[in-house]
Amino acid sequence: MTWAGVADTLAAICFLLGATLAMIAAIGVLRLPDLLSRMHAATKPQSLGLVLVLMGLALRAREADVIGLLTLVGVFQLLTTPVANHMLGRASLRAGQVRDDLLVVDDLADAPAGHEEPRGAP
């Protein structure tokens, strides 16, 4: 088997694993009970699934400029997804959309007396 055949086989495996993780994320978003669990299901497997698909594309393309672009897409996805998810979770907590009975630890519940988080846009 040539190097191209091995790379194509590895690319197919990456595509299948990435698609499987994306499907698991979609099922988690539909089936999990509360907002924070759904956000977790949407972020973790989806990010890893995207990285696997990007690896499959890189193995299939085999060109330096395409691999560089795919690497940038993966890095920016891994940098922005946690920040966006954190901000979405914080906003939903402020709006009262989080079920307190399902939380194991609530780090934001220990706010000093008289302290209220700002609401809305600045």
Structural account:
This protein has helices spanning about 5-30, 35-60, 65-95. The protein is mostly helical and about 120 residues long. The chain has one domain. The protein starts with a helix and ends in a 28-residue tail after the last helix.
The oligomeric status of these chains comes to single chain
- Poorly predicted regions are none
Strand pairing plus helix content: what structural class? mainly alpha
Domain module tally: 1
Counted by DSSP, the helix tally is: 3
Tell the overall outline. Answer: elongated
What is the percent of helical residues?
A: over 70%
**What is the percentage of strand-forming residues?**
under 5%
Total DSSP E strands: 0
Radius of gyration: 20 Å
N-to-C span? 61 Å
SSE order: HHH
Major beta sheet summary = none
Mean pLDDT: 86
Ordered list of secondary-structure elements with their pairings:
Layout: H1 3-31, H2 35-61, H3 64-94
